[in-house]
């Protein structure tokens, strides 16, 4: 037996125990080696007229023997001589494939795509195998050799038999232990799954003998009670689909084919809303195929959801979900990126340089954004359906970046316009703003119908201004992070942002000079009344004041607004959060309509010294305003009792 050198032994131990996180990739590595071997022979046939092999003779075979506990990967490739077995498999980190690639760098065209480069992949077989036997016959040689090793001490090379050129790698699996079970590698289903997962796009057919059943023909003399009989048989099946759809030119692929690929590879039953194909050449050459789904997967908004695109290099899957390729707010995009130029880490599980990924991600983000903008502008119905499913994520993207992402995302948002009675973009809202309107108004609450009836909304609408009715919990948080919205109408034009204002908060600055004056006067005149009302309401409000937004007898008698950064709707949402949001309160102001007949009644009660009536009416006004604004009453029984008292 030839012993591995001490350094090699250490390296081998490292290889087997530390480099890979996932044992199952051993099959990917052996299949990649087989594909390289076949590729090398094919390349020879192209460059040397003495070598005659047809592409259809070239295949890879995967099989297993349950009783012997072996998995075998065979190829009809270039094979290895005794010397090559020694050099390639006896020396860790010696890559015959890299040598081949370097030697033939000039002559290689698109027809060859060698995967190996580090000279370590083969040894991953020892993660699952207690012994590996490699029987190989080099092309053009009439002798075969068998290399055998336990992956610990060393290896032997003995003469062997093989009918034709090529290599068989037989992995004798380790025994099952408590924490490891290798039986999945001893089933047709388990191996097929791994081939599909990692090696589906290897360019040569990967074949397996597959078990099938078929019904036997019904005998002519079968009686009425004949039960159909079945037989088992095996058939050679090609498991991989070979040609990656993303490498085919867009004009050669039908929409149907893209849809089928999407549905089968990403496990969706609905066609995608959009398909985005990218082919980039230059410093980094790559292909990408991305899909915008029609509907959100059930776990999109859960913590366990993992975003990412599948990453392939030389047709072999490196990562199932490469997170770095997508920003969080486009987490719903599914797809594939494939590049031969990626500098892989030795385990092929990550890349050496994330800057390569960043460059790709940046370009892809632009493409996705462009596709969404195109859908928004040219197929509004489809875009609204998209937004219904995924809009929350876009808004959350603005909120969670404290508004930093608004440049990328804000023009993709849609909100319900009270005036237009349909979904509009912020640009459409701004474009329709009448002369003199300098803010974007919105209201937040549970439903559009309810919001449309709110006095604070009506008051702004009566001035001729539109109000965006926001019904998602994230809406107001998103707007607060944005603070304002605007973009230059034309290139080079000045950039003016319109502030975003909640119609139920603070001073909107919409009152006329006359209205302002009237309110100031009413406040001064009725200082005593407002003081008494505030006392009656206690901690519930920070202030009782004359409303400037409710300014005619037809408007509501009172409304509640919030001073400061926390609105009533935000308070409601925060109070429903599991982690202590209930402590965050808005500063409520009870605004009273001084033109409303009820105000006259209140004034009269105050003048007559009827403190009980003032207190009771203050409570009633406060509670009914809460009801209108969709806020819970603190004491519904007391409220009902007060009303009953009035009705007696
Ligand atoms: N089935 C095979 N047929 C012919 N040669 C093979 C086969 N398997 C392995 N080899 C040779 O053994 C070498 C070492 O294989 P190994 O899988 O360790 O590394 P690699 O494929 O070169 O690189 P990587 O670590 O990137 O996969 C290969 O470069 C190749 O020359």
TrEMBL record:
<keyword id="KW-0067">ATP-binding</keyword>
<feature type="binding site">
    <location>
        <position position="29"/>
    </location>
    <ligand>
        <name>ATP</name>
    </ligand>
</feature>
<comment type="subunit">
    <text>Homodimer.</text>
</comment>
<dbReference type="InterPro" id="IPR020568">
    <property type="entry name" value="Ribosomal_Su5_D2-typ_SF"/>
</dbReference>
<feature type="domain" description="Histidine kinase/HSP90-like ATPase">
    <location>
        <begin position="22"/>
        <end position="177"/>
    </location>
</feature>
<dbReference type="InterPro" id="IPR003594">
    <property type="entry name" value="HATPase_dom"/>
</dbReference>
<feature type="binding site">
    <location>
        <position position="88"/>
    </location>
    <ligand>
        <name>ATP</name>
    </ligand>
</feature>
<feature type="coiled-coil region">
    <location>
        <begin position="354"/>
        <end position="381"/>
    </location>
</feature>
<feature type="binding site">
    <location>
        <position position="348"/>
    </location>
    <ligand>
        <name>ATP</name>
    </ligand>
</feature>
<dbReference type="InterPro" id="IPR036890">
    <property type="entry name" value="HATPase_C_sf"/>
</dbReference>
<feature type="binding site">
    <location>
        <position position="80"/>
    </location>
    <ligand>
        <name>ATP</name>
    </ligand>
</feature>
<dbReference type="GO" id="GO:0051082">
    <property type="term" value="F:unfolded protein binding"/>
</dbReference>
<feature type="binding site">
    <location>
        <begin position="95"/>
        <end position="96"/>
    </location>
    <ligand>
        <name>ATP</name>
    </ligand>
</feature>
<dbReference type="InterPro" id="IPR020575">
    <property type="entry name" value="Hsp90_N"/>
</dbReference>
<feature type="binding site">
    <location>
        <position position="167"/>
    </location>
    <ligand>
        <name>ATP</name>
    </ligand>
</feature>
<dbReference type="GO" id="GO:0005737">
    <property type="term" value="C:cytoplasm"/>
</dbReference>
<dbReference type="Pfam" id="PF00183">
    <property type="entry name" value="HSP90"/>
</dbReference>
<keyword id="KW-0346">Stress response</keyword>
<feature type="region of interest" description="C">
    <location>
        <begin position="573"/>
        <end position="648"/>
    </location>
</feature>
<dbReference type="GO" id="GO:0140662">
    <property type="term" value="F:ATP-dependent protein folding chaperone"/>
</dbReference>
<dbReference type="InterPro" id="IPR037196">
    <property type="entry name" value="HSP90_C"/>
</dbReference>
<feature type="binding site">
    <location>
        <position position="75"/>
    </location>
    <ligand>
        <name>ATP</name>
    </ligand>
</feature>
<keyword id="KW-0143">Chaperone</keyword>
<comment type="function">
    <text>Molecular chaperone. Has ATPase activity.</text>
</comment>
<dbReference type="GO" id="GO:0016887">
    <property type="term" value="F:ATP hydrolysis activity"/>
</dbReference>
<feature type="binding site">
    <location>
        <position position="33"/>
    </location>
    <ligand>
        <name>ATP</name>
    </ligand>
</feature>
<keyword id="KW-0175">Coiled coil</keyword>
<feature type="region of interest" description="A; substrate-binding">
    <location>
        <begin position="1"/>
        <end position="348"/>
    </location>
</feature>
<protein>
    <recommendedName>
        <fullName>Chaperone protein HtpG</fullName>
    </recommendedName>
</protein>
<keyword id="KW-0963">Cytoplasm</keyword>
<keyword id="KW-0547">Nucleotide-binding</keyword>
<comment type="similarity">
    <text>Belongs to the heat shock protein 90 family.</text>
</comment>
<dbReference type="InterPro" id="IPR001404">
    <property type="entry name" value="Hsp90_fam"/>
</dbReference>
<dbReference type="InterPro" id="IPR019805">
    <property type="entry name" value="Heat_shock_protein_90_CS"/>
</dbReference>
<dbReference type="Pfam" id="PF13589">
    <property type="entry name" value="HATPase_c_3"/>
</dbReference>
<feature type="binding site">
    <location>
        <begin position="117"/>
        <end position="122"/>
    </location>
    <ligand>
        <name>ATP</name>
    </ligand>
</feature>
<dbReference type="GO" id="GO:0005524">
    <property type="term" value="F:ATP binding"/>
</dbReference>
């Amino acid at each position: 037996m030839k012993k591995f050198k001490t350094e090699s032994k250490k390296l081998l131990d490292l290889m087997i125990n530390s480099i890979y996180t996932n044992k199952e990739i051993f099959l990917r590595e052996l299949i990649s080696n087989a594909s390289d071997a076949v590729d090398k022979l094919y390349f020879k046939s192209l460059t040397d007229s003495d070598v005659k092999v047809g592409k259809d003779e070239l295949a890879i075979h995967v099989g297993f023997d349950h009783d012997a506990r072996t998995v075998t990967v065979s190829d009809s490739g270039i094979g290895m001589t005794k010397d090559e077995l020694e050099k390639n498999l006896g020396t860790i980190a010696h890559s015959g494939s890299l040598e081949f690639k370097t030697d033939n760098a000039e002559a290689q065209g698109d027809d060859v795509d060698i995967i190996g480069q580090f000279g370590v992949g083969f040894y991953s077989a020892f993660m699952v195998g207690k012994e590996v036997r490699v029987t190989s016959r080099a092309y053009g040689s009439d002798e075969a050799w068998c290399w055998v090793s336990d992956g610990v001490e060393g290896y032997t090379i003995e003469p062997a038999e093989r009918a034709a050129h090529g290599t068989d790698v037989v992995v004798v699996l380790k025994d099952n232990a408590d924490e490891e079970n290798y039986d999945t590698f001893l089933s047709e289903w388990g191996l097929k799954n791994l081939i599909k997962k990692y090696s589906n796009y290897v360019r040569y057919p990967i074949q397996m003998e597959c078990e099938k059943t078929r019904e036997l023909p019904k005998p002519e003399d079968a009686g009425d009670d004949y039960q159909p009989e079945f037989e088992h048989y095996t058939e050679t099946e090609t498991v991989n689909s070979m040609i990656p759809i993303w490498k085919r030119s867009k004009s050669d692929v039908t929409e149907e084919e893209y849809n089928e690929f999407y549905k089968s590879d990403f496990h969706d039953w609905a066609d995608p809303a959009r398909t985005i194909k990218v082919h980039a050449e230059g410093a980094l050459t790559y292909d990408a195929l991305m899909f915008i789904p029609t509907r959100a997967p059930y776990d999109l908004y859960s913590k366990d959801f993992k975003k990412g695109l599948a990453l392939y290099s030389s047709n072999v899957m490196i990562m199932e979900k490469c997170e770095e390729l997508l920003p969080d707010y486009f987490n719903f995009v599914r797809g594939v990126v494939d590049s031969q130029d990626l500098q892989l880490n030795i385990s092929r599980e990550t890349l050496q340089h994330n800057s390569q990924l960043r460059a790709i991600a940046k370009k892809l983000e632009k493409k996705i954004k462009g596709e969404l903008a195109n859908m928004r502008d040219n197929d509004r119905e489809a875009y609204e359906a998209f937004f219904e499913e995924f809009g929350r994520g876009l808004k959350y993207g603005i909120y969670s970046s404290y508004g930093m992402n608004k440049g990328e995302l804000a023009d993709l948002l849609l909100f319900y316009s009270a005036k237009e009675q349909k979904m509009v973009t912020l640009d459409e809202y701004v474009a329709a703003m009448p002369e003199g309107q300098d803010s974007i108004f919105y209201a937040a609450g549970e439903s559009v119908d309810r919001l449309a009836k709110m006095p604070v909304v009506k008051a702004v609408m009566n001035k001729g201004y539109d109000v965006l009715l926001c019904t998602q919990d994230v809406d107001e948080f998103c707007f607060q992070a944005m603070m304002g919205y605007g973009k230059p109408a034309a290139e080079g034009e000045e950039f003016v942002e319109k502030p975003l204002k909640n119609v139920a908060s603070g001073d909107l600055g919409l009152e006329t000079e006359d209205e302002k004056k009237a309110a100031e006067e009413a406040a001064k005149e009725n200082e005593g009344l407002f003081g008494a009302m505030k006392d009656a309401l206690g901690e519930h409000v920070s202030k009782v004041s004359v409303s400037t937004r409710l300014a005619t007898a037809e408007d509501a008698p009172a409304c509640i607004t919030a001073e400061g950064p926390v609105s009533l709707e935000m308070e409601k949402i925060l109070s429903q959060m599991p982690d202590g949001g209930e402590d965050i309160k808005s500063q409520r102001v009870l605004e009273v309509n001084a033109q409303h007949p009820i105000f006259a009644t209140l004034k009269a009660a105050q003048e007559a010294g009827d403190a009980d009536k003032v207190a009771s009416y203050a409570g009633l006004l406060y509670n009914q305003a809460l009801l209108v604004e969709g806020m819970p009453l603190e004491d519904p029984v007391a409220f009902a009792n007060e009303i009953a008292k009035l009705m007696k």
